[in-house]
Amino acid sequence: MNLKEEVRYWKDQIDLSKVWAPGLLILAGIVLMISATALFLELAEDVWEQEKFTFDHVIMDYFQLIESGTLTNMLRLVTETGSVWWITAASVLTVLFLWLKKRDVLGVVFFFLAITGGGLFILVLKYFFQRERPTLAPEYDGSGYSFPSGHALGSFILYGFIIYLIGREKRFFKTRMLAISLLGILIILVGISRVYLQVHYPSDILAGYAVGLIWLICCIFSMEMMKVYRDKDKRAQFTNLIYHRK
C-alpha cells in the first residue's frame, strides 16, 4: 500500500471539515502557551534578579498624569471584579449554572480545578518571588507581595473560562460575540485598574495574565480530551476505521 492510497482512504473516511477547525485551535493553543511561558520566564528572571523594568515606571508615571476623581472611582469598581470575594461569588454561580442548567459534570470539575489551581499558583509564586508592591493600599486589596498579580490571574481564568463556555454554544452568534468582547475588555481593564491604583507594576499584570493563560489552556485542553475519551461513539468509530483498515 503506497502513501497516496493511504491518504486517499483516510480522506474518504474522515470529514476533514470537522478536523481543520479543532486542529487550528490546538495549534493556536500550543503557540499561545509557548509564548506565555517565554514571557513569564523572562519577567520572572528579571524580578528574581531585582532588575528594574523601564516600562513599569513609564506606564505608572503616565497614569499619575491622567489621574482624576472620576477615573479613580470607575477603576475602583472595575478592580473589584478581580477581587477574591467577587471571583468566589462568580465561580459559585458558574458552577451552579453548569450543574443545574447544563448537567456538565466535567465542566464543573475542570472549572473548579482552574479556579483553585490558579489560587494555589498565586500563593506559591508570590511567596517565592516576594516582590514588594509599589504602594500598599489595603482598601484596594493592595497588601502582601506583588508578583504576579492575583487580580490579573484570577480574572483571566474566571472570565477566560466563561468566554470558552460562551464560545462553544451554537446559538445567538451576535450576542455571544458581544459577551465575549465585553469579557475580554473586562480582563484588560482589571489589569489596568491595578496599575492605575498603584498597587501593582505592569510587569506583575503581564505575569498574572501569562500564568493564567497557561493554566486555563491546560484545563480546557484536558477537559476536551476527557470528553473525547468518554465519547464511546467517536472512539468506536475510530477503532473500527483502524480495524477494518488492517
- Classify the beta-strand content into a percent band: under 5%
- The helix count comes to 10
- Indicate how many domains the architecture comprises: 1
Spatial separation of the terminal alpha carbons? 11 Å
Rg for CA atoms:
22 Å
The number of E-state strands comes to 0
**Uncertain residue segments:** none
Query: Which structural class matches the secondary elements?
Result: mainly alpha
Amount of helix: over 70%
Structure in a nutshell:
The chain is an all-alpha fold.
Task: Characterise this structure.
The chain is an all-alpha fold. It has one domain. The radius of gyration is 22 Å and the shape is globular. The mean pLDDT is 86.
Please specify the SSE layout and strand pairing.
Layout: H1 3-13, H2 17-48, H3 54-65, H4 69-80, H5 84-101, H6 105-129, H7 150-167, H8 173-196, H9 202-230, H10 232-245
Helix pairs in contact: 2-9, 4-8, 5-6, 5-7, 6-7, 6-9, 7-8, 7-9
